[in-house]
């Protein structure tokens, strides 16, 4: 159940000598500007990577599939089916016949090779080609790592392709911690789980003997904060992801604590404490154990989230009579309200780029995931359903994952993701139900 | 923790039946539906014994209901709590855990805070009637433990509740 698993995978990176003069991204035709609103996905060819050593055939096939799935999954690319290919890539070093790829209208072409070296390490090489410029886009790269880390290598390749073409930061080589849910609605069994961003490699971090809620990653992805009822009362725990060992945070007897989130220093934790009927925000220094009170209001203050520079906290409060979003200094003080639309606003999360806040909005019996500028302007709702809640940002700030729960006695929770443009809404494929996703930083 | 699991299963079964019936059996069939630690099925003593937790659940009434997003006590709730207080004062060996709950129409963490408000409103009322504070604990389950599972007001109204779970005389000394 709680078996530790390898998460630190040494990925060695090296340049691959080019076969054609690289073309420069700027000004070239191979470019997706996400902010301009993509109407037509870019046609891309991802022929199966060449197996350069005996026995690498299966690995090459799997790797290529994951790379293509990452790219197509963004909604920004359309894969040209293999049956339509005129050329086959059978030698990674041979010159590419660009005319053959132009003929099938591939704008981008990813070629690659897979081999294992004498010590059993997996080596993956790739090149990105700008077909209509007859050349490579950026340098070819080589990754080396252990065989069981093959999916990470595939994600690294896809991240390179995605970043070079969009100019956005990478995000495929990341993980998500979430609450796995099983059983009917009045008998829900919840366990903490972790997976690759695309739903693969699910591992369980706790058993289902007590309710667990809302896990959140540390800034380096090595630890997770979450809330568990294992003591009979909601209490915050910090878990080491590699070993699945956990310890409770210090709390005061007779109080409940929940809604924890790390600060960017990885040492400060902000969270809610309920004493009697009143819920306020506190901060805790993990190293020193020193605790500070950030709010002292008779209202509910919860769901705090730090700005990336650690100077401010966005949170929700019902001090105005309904749930609304506020920003205050990370040391407390007078908050400024930023949400003013119709309905109630909760679960604010600061984007990794620092420029936006994602939130849950409840209005006229419907739930929405939305984003707004840090000053509350330019509110945009990305989703609408019976119950959407709890957004989390991809490491590059382009995609939001959240919980969607269906209604009725057979209602179940699932994980969904959506681009911050509002496009590409899709369900994340996991073995059971899921809720409360939290996206990790990009893995190193 | 093992007993907690068993009780959770019981809650589920009872919750399903509660949804399909009218509210008439609120203090009857699902009377043992407290989600937390406390008496399991069969350990409550006889219903006919006025000093038993079973009597408290079924005859006195172990729960009060709340309006949407509210934690103030309705007149009906105060009537029930007045009877709870009388029972607790008479049966002074018992302690109680008051569990606050919310319906599913709200975000998870806010609902935990809201459930705490509801449980505390009940606790404060019982204290105002003379029940010693040391005999009363509160916990909130937010929207994590619904007893009625439909997605309409019929069920939501049953889930917006605070349940007084009698937790035994063992720790009275």
UniProtKB/TrEMBL annotation, chain A:
Pfam families: PD40, TolB_N. GO terms for biological process: cell division; protein import. It is found in: Periplasm. It comes from the Bacteria. Residues 30-136 form the TolB N-terminal domain. The keyword Cytoplasm does not apply. Keywords: Cell cycle, Cell division, Periplasm, Signal. Residues 1-25 form the signal peptide. InterPro entries: 6-blade_b-propeller_TolB-like, Tol-Pal_TolB, TolB_N, WD40. GO terms for cellular component: periplasmic space. The keyword Nucleotide-binding does not apply. Belongs to the TolB family. Part of the Tol-Pal system, which plays a role in outer membrane invagination during cell division and is important for maintaining outer membrane integrity. The Tol-Pal system is composed of five core proteins: the inner membrane proteins TolA, TolQ and TolR, the periplasmic protein TolB and the outer membrane protein Pal. They form a network linking the inner and outer membranes and the peptidoglycan layer. This is Tol-Pal system protein TolB.
From TrEMBL, chain B:
Keywords: Cell cycle, Cell division, Cell outer membrane, Lipoprotein, Membrane, Palmitate, Signal. One of its GO terms (biological process) is cell division. It is a lipid-anchor. SUPFAM superfamilies: OmpA-like (SSF103088). Residues 53-170 form the OmpA-like domain. PROSITE patterns: OMPA_1, OMPA_2, PROKAR_LIPOPROTEIN. Gene3D superfamilies: OmpA-like domain. Pfam families: OmpA. GO terms for cellular component: cell outer membrane. It is found in: Cell outer membrane. Residues 1-23 form the signal peptide. It comes from the Bacteria. The Tol-Pal system is composed of five core proteins: the inner membrane proteins TolA, TolQ and TolR, the periplasmic protein TolB and the outer membrane protein Pal. They form a network linking the inner and outer membranes and the peptidoglycan layer. Belongs to the Pal lipoprotein family. Part of the Tol-Pal system, which plays a role in outer membrane invagination during cell division and is important for maintaining outer membrane integrity. This is Peptidoglycan-associated lipoprotein. The lineage of its organism: Bacteria, Pseudomonadati, Pseudomonadota, Alphaproteobacteria, Rhodobacterales.
